[in-house]
Every structure is written in C-alpha cells, then in structure tokens.
Specification:
Elements: H1 2-14, E1 20-21, H2 25-32, H3 36-48, E2 52-58, E3 64-71
C-alpha cells in the first residue's frame, strides 16, 4: 500500500548500517503527516510482508521504551 511504502522509506532513511532504527510511532506520524493508526497499520503490513521486523525495547527500570525496527534492505 502507499502508506506502507511511505513508512518503509521513512524507516530506511533513518536506519543505521545494520538496518536498525527506533523512532516512536508518534514521531513517524507527525513527520509523515499521517495518523498514528495509519502508521501502525503500515508497520503491521510491512512486518507481514517481511520488509521489517520490530522488537520491544525496555528501560533499565523495567518500563517499555520505543520499538526497535530492523529494515530488511
């Protein structure tokens, strides 16, 4: 979908040499001028098709941190 391509390009542009990046959903939505739910659907689509993987990151105190995205280049 168009939204998935847009989010994929955003993540790829921000990924390091290993394809990893960790922008917040809200940041992606704000910068791409999309709703948070649209970004979440795009990420789900990209995961389903194998273009990215995501992993929950955790703070030292045990709280949730941002998601780590790995972009398959």
């Amino acid at each position: 979908s168009h939204r998935a391509v847009t989010v994929y390009m955003y993540l790829r542009d921000r990924a390091d040499k290993d394809g990893k990046c960790y922008p917040a959903i809200g940041t992606i939505a704000k910068e791409l001028k999309l709703s948070r739910s649209t970004v979440k659907r795009a990420i789900a689509d990209l995961e389903k098709t194998g273009h990215i993987s995501k992993e929950q990151r955790w703070r030292e105190n045990g709280g949730k941190s941002s998601l780590l995205y790995t972009v398959k280049l």
